[in-house]
Known about the structure:
147 residues, 5-stranded parallel sheet
Amino acid sequence: MQAVPPDSSPNPPPRALRVLVVEDDPQTLMLTVEMVQLLGHWATGVKSAELAKDRFMEGAFDVLLTDIGLPALSGYDLVESLLAHHQLRVIFATGQTRPARPVAGTLWLQKPFGIDQLEEALATAADGLSPGSEKKALEKSSPEQPG
Length: 147
């Protein structure tokens, strides 16, 4: 993957985030990392929750953007294990239906999503979330697809 220089973004974000993307589909992983970088943030990606846990270091990432339907360890399991020991903002990016009771303090980004929805999710994550302020506006009414 090629890094996109931060100055190539037409409207750089007020605060550049460090984003860890976890996605098992190689093409989706590459495209998501590229979109995050085009928005002026730093991003790296891994293809499994296990790799994400191995590479995670406290303070290295501001946001975890993860799929839920990952092989072996799910995105839910990854988030549960990381949030037990680390401060981290989480965006679930998935084709699965948003649960009635999402994990507290997390955002839900419905696949397929475009750069505008990703930008909104990252901006919300940058602002931080207070309990109960999950952005339902991030959901798009689209056909369900496997996460």
